[in-house]
Design brief:
Blueprint lengths: L3 H11 L29 H21 L7 E8 L2 E7 L3 H15 L12 E3 L5 E2 L1 H7 L5 E3 H21 L5
Helix pairs in contact: 2-3
Length: 170
């Protein structure tokens, strides 16, 4: 069985943008030992469900654009129950298609185990499957994911409508 460091080294060989770097200098930390990668910031369920496939899609686009070694991740996190992927040097296709595809998928995928989500917690907003929600139900309240997604899409649509009327927005 491979150690965590060995599997991280293989990940970084395939996806060099997963190498942690200083956000100001772009340098790899001197003491870096492959004990972690940028992908470790992605919640476990999402990483299990689509993390490496997302990296593969990004890699394919970067190879096509001849930009694989220049692309950098600045941060991967969850915010309001959705994946947030911040980077430097993405292509137009990554911005419009690849990253939004996985942001959309994350809102429908259990943040803990990677199974399809059925509920969203109402405190710290995160998607959960029935099993994982049951394990933390003593500490959280939940709503059906359909209700959350319907509300979220209405809010996005109304914000877009406001922005379209604003002559100063891009």
């Amino acid at each position: 069985m491979q150690s965590n460091k060995e599997s991280n080294q293989k990940l970084i060989e395939r996806f060099p943008f997963l190498m942690p770097r200083n956000c100001w200098t772009g340098e790899v930390p001197e003491d870096y030992d492959y004990s972690y990668t940028e992908l470790d910031s992605m919640p476990d369920g999402w990483r299990k469900a689509f993390g490496e496939q997302m990296c593969e899609d990004i890699r394919e686009e970067l190879v096509h654009a001849e930009y694989l070694d220049q692309y950098r991740i600045s941060q991967i996190k969850e915010k309001y129950g959705t994946l947030c992927w911040y980077d430097f040097g993405c292509t137009e296709r990554m911005l419009r298609d690849i990253i939004p595809k996985y942001e959309h998928l994350s809102a429908r995928t259990c943040i803990r185990c990677g199974n399809p989500a059925t509920k969203v917690s109402t405190g710290w907003i995160s998607p959960y499957c029935d099993t994982c929600a049951g394990e933390i139900s003593h500490a959280e309240r939940f709503i059906a994911i359909e209700k959350w997604l319907d509300r979220s899409s209405r809010e996005v649509t109304s914000k877009r409508s406001l922005n379209e009327k604003d002559t100063h927005s891009l």
